[in-house]
Design a protein that fits this description.
By secondary structure, the protein is of the alpha+beta class. It is 56% helix and 6% strand. Helix 13 packs across helix 15 (296-307).
């Protein structure tokens, strides 16, 4: 079947309503209202309502577009011109509702108490805008993400609820780091030097981690720690924001040694994967989602070896069941004893981990003491800006 492209003559009907176009058509063709009604196969009363800007059926709208030889776009534009102001406001609202449903997992946001309603979309928009500091909900689309290569977390045209939750988490952190705005230049050489001494800070359970956070900030690396969010499946993430390396640590497992391991794991990505991050903007470290261009196993090994060199692992394995010997090893390496147990467990297979974790749990402090004043809780505070201001205050306190 041959398809013939229609030759529309829209130009003479630009910026006219349906009624105005029909009046112009009657005048051009010397038609009365009765004559036009007959052409359109409607009665005069129906035509009068159309001329006065009342709604009309789709089938009749198509007839009018064929009669006037105008495109469907011009027809739609003419409808918009005759819509009352209050109706236009509702159309804008409907568009925002569509945007909200497309981009956000509302049940997850409600569970996190970021939003207070699942059905009041004006209130939902207000809550989300307040959280991000947006003037309009559509600013969320301006936070463009580039997915890691060959990864399960590819950006989807129609994201699932899990992906919506993950995108929200990533965009929250992107906004957070941009607002923090670390002005210090990233210094790779000094980072390597700092890593040679970082183990000493683990001995101070209460303040050591926050001191590391401050030093890294001075080296151009911003680190924030958050509560673990189940739908992200992430224990850490490294991002580039304004060309500065940024690290998110989720307090998965709530173990003190895990806090340090995750930090070292992500710092490996800063040291070795910076060029790759320039193409992807972020990398999520999780158990399920593996990126072919990034080695999580190597990052794990790096974290262990920062604390305990390979040539000391045999001594560790032989001494792990004797707490006095473990204390001597930790003194020799200038690290907290829990790090020794952590390295042992982290390097063991799943079967050994399951068997030995309960045995050594009494030597493994929780992360709560180290994180008492430094958790970045934008979700709990319902505001990224509030969380950022608290972080900046804490960093200033550390300089005192």
């Amino acid at each position: 079947m041959k398809i013939v492209k229609e030759d529309f003559t829209d130009s003479k009907y630009i910026d006219l309503t349906i009624g105005e176009m029909l009046y112009a058509y009657m005048e051009e063709n010397n038609l009365s209202q009765s004559g036009l009604a007959a052409i359109l196969d409607i009665n005069r009363k129906t035509l009068t309502s159309i001329l006065q800007g009342e709604d009309l059926k789709v089938s009749l709208a198509i007839k009018i577009s064929k009669l006037l030889n105008i495109s469907s776009d011009s027809l739609l534009d003419s409808f918009t011109l005759q819509v009352r102001e209050e109706e236009l406001e509702y159309f804008d609202f409907t568009k925002k509702v569509s945007f909200i449903l497309e981009h956000f997992d509302l049940s997850e946001l409600k569970a996190s108490k970021i939003i207070s309603s699942l059905t009041d979309y004006r209130e939902i928009e207000k809550d989300i805008c307040s959280y991000f500091g947006f003037k309009s909900i559509t600013e969320y689309a301006d936070l463009v993400l580039k997915a890691p290569l060959f990864s399960k977390s590819k950006i989807s045209v129609r994201p699932s609820k899990e992906q919506k939750a993950q995108y929200f988490w990533i965009k929250s952190n992107l906004t957070s780091f941009a607002e923090i705005g670390n002005k210090n230049e990233y210094n790779r050489t000094l980072l390597i030097e700092f890593l040679k001494r970082i183990g000493t800070l683990t001995k101070n359970v209460e303040h050591g981690f926050s001191q590391a956070q401050y030093v890294l900030y001075q080296l151009g690396i911003t680190v924030i720690v958050q509560s673990y969010i189940s739908k992200t499946k992430a224990y850490g993430m490294t991002m580039l924001v304004n060309d500065k390396p940024c690290i998110v640590i989720t307090d998965m497992g709530k173990q003190y040694y895990k806090l340090w391991f995750t930090l070292l794991h992500e710092l490996y990505h800063v040291l070795e994967d910076l060029e790759y991050l320039k193409t992807t903007s972020y990398h999520i470290s999780d158990i399920e989602n593996r990126d072919l261009f990034v080695s999580e196993d190597t990052a794990d090994a790096f974290a262990r070896e920062i604390f305990i060199p390979k040539d000391k692992m045999d001594i560790l394995n032989q001494s792990i069941n004797n707490s006095v010997k473990v204390d001597k090893i930790s003194d020799m390496l200038d690290i907290h004893p829990s790090i020794v147990y952590g390295v042992y467990l982290d390097s063991a297979d799943k079967k050994v981990q399951t068997r030995d974790f309960p045995r050594f749990s009494k030597y493994l402090p929780t992360s709560s003491i180290a994180l008492k004043d430094i958790v970045f809780d934008a979700i709990g505070q319902k505001s990224i800006d509030t969380a950022v201001q608290k972080l900046k205050k804490n960093l200033n306190i550390l300089t005192a």
